[in-house]
Amino acid sequence: MSVSQQPPESANAPVGTETMEPDHQGYLPPGSDGDADVVHQNRLVLRWKLFKRSFKQNWSLFADSKIGLLGLAIIFVFALMGIAHPILMATVWEDAIYDPVIGYDAPQAEKTVVPDAELTDPQTEVALSSALLDNPLVQPGDTVIISEQPANPSSKHLLGTDPLGRDVLSQLLFGTRAAFAMGVIAAIVTVIFGTVLGSIAAYYGGWIDGAVMRTADLFLLIPLIPVLIFIGGLFKVGLFSLGLLIGVLSGLGPVAIVLKSQALSVKVKPFIDAAKVAGGSDFRIITRHIIPNVLPLSFLYMMFTVTAAIAGEATLSFFGLLEVDMSWGIMIHTAQTQGYLLRGTDFWWLLLPAGGAVTLLSAGFYLVGRGLDEVVNPRLRAR
Amino acid sequence: MFKTISLRLVQMLILFVVFLTLLFFLIQLAPGSPADRFIGNPQIPPQARQLLIERFGLDQSLWGQYWSYITAFFQGDLGVSFNQYPRPVMDIILERMPRTIWLFFGATVLAYYFGFILGKYLAWRRGGFSEYSITIIGVFLFTVFVPWFAIMMIWFWSFILGIFPTGKFLDPVLWRSVDFSANDVFVPLIVTAFAALIGAGLFTYLAKRFRGRPGLSRLFSWGGSIVVVGGFVLYWASVSDKTTYALDIAYHTVLPTMTVALIAFGGVMLLMRTSMLETLAEDYILTARAKGLPDSVVRDRHAARNALLPVVTSLVLALATIIGGGIVTETIFAWPGLGLTLLQSAVSGDHPLALGALAFVGVLALVGHLVVDILYTYLDPRIRFD
Prior knowledge:
Chain A is mainly alpha-helical. Chain A has helices spanning 33-64, 66-90, 95-98, 128-134, 168-204, 206-221, 224-234, 239-252, 254-267, 270-277, 282-318, 328-337, 348-376, and strands spanning 108-114, 125-127, 143-147. A three-stranded mixed beta sheet of chain A has the order 2-1-3. Mean pLDDT of chain A is 80; it is low at 1-34. In chain B, α11 (240-280) crosses α13 and α14 (338-348) packs antiparallel against α15 (351-379). Classes of the chains: A mainly alpha, B mainly alpha.
């Protein structure tokens, strides 16, 4: 096949022409865009097939680890919860009662007044001292109607209400979105920073490498939570900026170091030399050859960053340092500031769902990371 | 080895200055200058305002302020706290630093010791039920929401079982009529505990060194334990007026230390398991087994020792987690260390104190890294003899 035989009009069609039969080479009609499209499509189909094959291979490796599948299942359940909230708000739940931030409901309950010392069952009895706050004439043995706040779990409020009369289940579902948003922002920023900086440092070496690595050293040394507390005290930090912050801190730090060492091992492979000899520019070699080869590893670190981001968001909002209306951390923060922390199992729905959700979702992402680890790192596989 | 470490020291110093610079300019960037709170008050007479401006150094340029802050920092002067005026920041930090070190140190030693051992066994028994269940527990501890976990620990141990106090690092009623400060007991406690640990390490090393001579080895391990424990007990029995107070502090220490240790333990154990799995796939392990060496020798001397290296490297990452977890734990337990100081000052806008506390958290992390580095050069002969 030689280019000189082709009419100049069809010079835009040499992509993948080797798939055509040689007889037609010299006789392509001028401006035959249709054929070019077919050829172009062929390449996409080919890529798709390759992608599907490698995906299948990796998936079977991933599916071998029960731990990774468990993590994926946990994330899936939480994603469903996040989707369920707006749907429930639009259909079943009334805004005035079930809104996670401004909703209010105080279920009425009939209770018997008993002296403080004889209080045994808080479900049906109320201590005299607290009943006196509502009605100064009440006596032990009377039946009073108490508007409960926080209310016990009931058919109306499956997880009860919080100390301000808001539905806990609604808050829990709403908080899922914040956690996912945080995780996604932090993960994407981390991967972009870590991959690009790591690849550039490995490819160019020299002072660029030195600069990136010293910066990484700095961010590696700094414990994340104290710095976030410091920054949260100084600035108004919202969900988006916190995600950005966590992403940048971990992307410039540990992730850049790990990805640089991976990129170094890619850089010495023969196909990089081949690309250089073929005249590939630095930009093309980095974007087309190095980055795709370090991406699996960066995907792994993405999962670990999500874990850190979810925990960071919850911790900061627990301390009240985050400008956010409602999140899992705020739910525990409310329980703490209203004094329900050490009431044992009496008010379990104020503490368990939120704390459990943070732990479970971070564990889910971490487990997926572990599963990916076995795909990326062949030495971990069972013999 | 000394060259490596001194080079590392210089690097760390530079890093620390960069860190401090970043923090200083972050404060400058924050909306509402801290000085405005005092200067902006219209009721302050002009002379007093002039005096304040001079004292805060606000008549200097930004670079002048920065330069004087950095130079003063390395002379041990971190300015004056806003909320506890006129107490110097350095004074507050020196008072609270030992408490954080105590918590951090105890928790780290416990977490690493048990993490190594359990991680080793987990990898060795790959695939069993115990491996799965312990790995799940490890993942739970590693990803648990720290404030919530600390609350649950208090709830279980202090509320349900009633064994440990719910918070604080001493019992105020007991200390009411005492004429020495808490740190007079606290600092000796740290020093003696540290000495005991070093002694224990030394005797363990000697016992291993003379493994070939069982009599001598036994003498070192038994005699060593007696000397270390006996020395520790004897010292605290001799300062009889402080013994009860030391016991009080130790009693308050148990629960927070346990919390931080458990949080850190999960990460260390998972790391050790992964690293041990990688090492077990090496050819020399197969060789060792083929030679017919007992399992315990293959596991402890061939695999675990080599698996330790990447774990120690990764400890650099784990260190930050432990410090972060420790700081959150401090706030839940009302443990008046650096972490609680940092949170309180950050929330209330006490910028000099927040900056100082965070800088010293950084110092703590740096020292931790240095220890890890020294450990690494000791463990890996390739670095030592370079």
